[in-house]
Design goal:
Order of helices and strands: HHHHHHHHHHHHHHEHHEHEEE
Helix content: 55-70%
Strand content: 5-15%
Strand order of the largest sheet: 3-4-5
Number of strands: 5
Number of helices: 17
Structural class: mainly alpha
Radius of gyration: 36 Å
Length: 536
């Protein structure tokens, strides 16, 4: 007979007993503050422990973290400007403008912040345009629309500052500086010129009010700070003013500059303490020189045949003397100047670029009153130096490492745009004014590999120069080769030489309408205009 197995009655376990009863594995009566089960056995009741985890649920905060940006897209474009655009725009000078002054203003001014985002949008679309697929091109149009919206917001914020005096002036100048490349990158050069003229007007009015040599000591510190910003922006606007005059033909520089050490013709050579000091001095001379060539020199070169008044010749000689004094001062500066190790590469580029611009200015001014193109033949050695220095600059820029963040990005194209006037204009000038076949072909070859510099596009200028060479030499263009014997200056007669080249661009169709002026019947003959289409 088998014994029935006893089963333990089931019961619900309590989880709220005291700690002592839990250890003893006995049922706790859960009386408080101490259970009777512990007290009746002379034990210490260790009390009750609530092991439940409490989670506090709070409503979401209505306070947002504000950094000035409206959306992530704006943040991405701002980061693109900071990591890429600011480096490319300051290829030679102005790194402190794009990488510091503009960025600082963007954090404190909504107008500048929106302008930065708008410019970054245009620059990114321009930079990656050649790599886009058809679907990406459609998406790119939305990005352009976003940039246009940011541009409009920047303009609206500027209008709110229009009645704030000097403080509004500084912000307006920074926004104007951002609007200029925004329009250039979109092919709206006339709109870019409109912004430049507005900025030049502000600078002229401000400098006239405070005096060219300083500000009254009674001015408020905030106004003084704004004037410091305007002084810091003056060199870049001086270069843009010159670039506009060279590109627009009959336009004269409108920005008033004055470098006191060269204002008098009999003043001794200036002394430069830095590369920037030499640059500012040369900008002042070039500003005065191009005003002379536009207002006076072009009249006697293209419209009036005969003797040039002695006063005009004297003004030309004064300007040539100032260029000569600048060269002496620059040579003296370079003979003892020690470039800081961390600035060696950048300042070497600046030095070479200043020498190029000095040589272009010298050839332009020396021949501006000559009715014959033969006058340029005397400057073939200077043209050769321009090409040589431009080649060094081009090779140096091509070998430069990309910014660290750009290196990490996939499919990142090389630098494609710089706002500064670099080597395109000097090379184009050399190609159409130097009649040495080998030198001018070397200039064209370099032009074809140049990135865009402001309104100047190397590929376009190369094709125009190529056609000019073909017309003057009377044969098809051929690149320089060791075996080829090229025509020299003596082989190009005066009557076939082209005096000036006007151009109207259609970037959509990739064509340029050029108008070449010649005097087929000699210096006393009538002008013959030859119009052609050039494609690139």
């Amino acid at each position: 007979m088998t014994r029935a197995k006893k089963t333990r009655a089931s019961h619900k376990k309590s989880k709220t007993g005291c700690h002592t009863c839990k250890i003893r594995r006995v049922k706790c009566d859960e009386q408080k503050p101490a259970c009777q089960k512990c007290l009746s056995t002379s034990r210490t009741c260790d009390g009750y422990e609530d092991s439940r985890e409490w989670v506090v649920v709070a409503p979401p905060s209505s306070i947002l973290v504000l950094d000035g940006f409206e959306d992530d897209q704006g943040r991405r474009y701002f980061d693109f400007f900071r990591s890429q655009s600011s480096f490319e725009f300051s290829r030679f000078f102005d790194s402190g403008i794009w990488g510091k002054l503009v960025l600082q203003a963007a954090y404190s001014s909504p107008a500048v912040r929106h302008a930065v985002i708008a410019l970054a949008s245009s620059h990114k679309e321009f930079k990656y345009r050649s790599m886009l697929t058809q679907w990406e091109m459609a998406h790119s149009s939305k990005e352009c629309a976003y940039g246009a919206q940011q541009y409009g917001k920047a303009v609206r914020h500027l209008k709110q500052l229009s009645e704030k005096g000097q403080q509004g002036h500084a912000i307006a100048l920074i926004c104007g500086l951002l609007f200029i490349p925004f329009e250039v990158l979109r092919g709206n050069n006339i709109a870019a010129l409109y912004h430049l003229e507005g900025c030049v007007k502000i600078l002229n009015e401000t400098r006239s009010a405070i005096g060219l040599q300083g500000r009254p000591p009674t001015q408020a510190s905030s106004a003084a700070s704004e004037n410091d910003v305007e002084q810091e922006l003056l060199p870049i606007f001086a270069r843009l003013d010159l670039e506009a005059s060279l590109y627009m033909g009959l336009r004269s520089p409108n920005l008033y500059l004055d470098y006191p050490e060269i204002s008098e013709s009999d003043y001794p050579s200036p002394v430069f303490l830095s590369v920037l000091d030499a640059s500012n001095c040369l900008n002042s001379i070039m500003n005065r020189m191009h005003k002379f060539t536009r207002s006076t020199g072009d009249h006697f070169r293209y419209r009036s045949v005969g003797d040039v008044p002695i006063g005009v010749v004297s003004e030309q000689h004064t300007l040539l003397s100032q260029l000569s004094k600048w060269q002496c001062a620059f040579d003296g500066f370079l003979s003892h100047y020690q470039t800081p190790l961390h600035h060696v590469a950048q300042e070497e580029k600046q030095i070479n670029l200043l020498q190029i611009h000095h040589d272009v200015s010298t050839t332009t001014l020396a021949c501006t009153l000559h009715a014959e193109e033969l006058a340029y033949d005397a400057f073939n050695p200077m043209f050769a130096q321009i090409v040589s220095l431009a080649k060094i600059l081009h090779n140096t820029s091509s070998a430069e490492p990309k910014p660290h963040k750009q290196q990490q990005q996939e499919k990142s194209p090389p630098a494609t745009f710089s706002l500064e006037t670099g080597i395109i204009l000097p090379l184009y000038w050399t190609a159409i004014k130097c009649r040495d076949g080998r030198i001018r072909r070397q200039a064209v070859a370099l032009l074809r590999t140049c990135q865009q510099e402001g309104v100047w596009i190397g590929e376009i200028q190369a094709e125009i120069a190529k056609r000019v060479i073909e017309i003057e030499e009377g044969e098809l263009f051929d690149c320089a080769t060791p075996q080829r014997v090229f025509k020299t200056s003596q082989d190009i007669p005066e009557w076939v030489r082209i005096h000036s080249v006007g151009m109207t661009l259609d970037e959509t169709r990739r064509e340029a309408k050029i108008a070449c002026l010649q005097r087929l019947n000699g210096p006393d003959g009538e002008w013959d205009e030859r119009e052609e289409l050039v494609f690139w």
